[in-house]
Amino acid sequence: MQNISPKVQNQINMLQQMQQQMQTILSQKSQYELAAQEARRAVEELKETDDSAAVYMNVGTVVMQKPKSEVISKVTEKIETLEIRIRSIEKQEKMLQEKFEKLQSQVRSEIEGRKTPDAN
Fold first, then answer.
1. Gene3D superfamilies this protein is in?
2. Domain extent at residue 20
């Protein structure tokens, strides 16, 4: 990296930061997708449960018995919120990926422009 200009070194550092941001975004997305999947599974189970069955739900630090329809409604609402977050993260991911690819292309051009031909 001794022959690389400070500008290119800075761009390389930016690429590394973008990679870290991408990893963070992908981790968040994965967590939200897992939570949404678990919530969907819970709704499916609740729908198969008899209407007279006791259904419990966390309310803060307390677990309370609630009507099945209310629990389904709350969990469905949670799924919708998670899906909105996932879509938002996907937009961030796409924008960051585009910026990354553009900067990566610039860095490659800079580096390739500085290469000297081999004397073979």
1. 1.10.287.370
2. 6-114
Instruction: Give dist(CA 103, CA 19) in Å, integer.
Output: 12
Residue at 68 is within a domain: yes
Q: How far apart are the first and last CA of the chain?
A: 23
Q: Is residue 23 part of a domain?
A: yes
Give the Å distances, CA to CA, from 99 to 16, 17, 86, 96: 12, 12, 20, 5
User: What's the CA gap between 39 and 31, in Å, rounded?
Assistant: 12
**25-69: per-residue pLDDT in tens?**
999 999 999 999 999 999 999 999 998 899 999 989 999 999 999
Instruction: Identify whether the C-beta of residue 41 lies closer than 8 Å to the C-beta of residue 2.
Output: no
Structure tokens, 83 = 């899906």
* pLDDT tens digits along 69-87: 999 999 999 999 999 999 9
The CATH number of whichever domain residue 19 belongs to comes to 1.10.287.370
pTM: 0.81
Q: Could you give phi then psi for residue 59, rounded to 5 degrees?
A: -125, 95
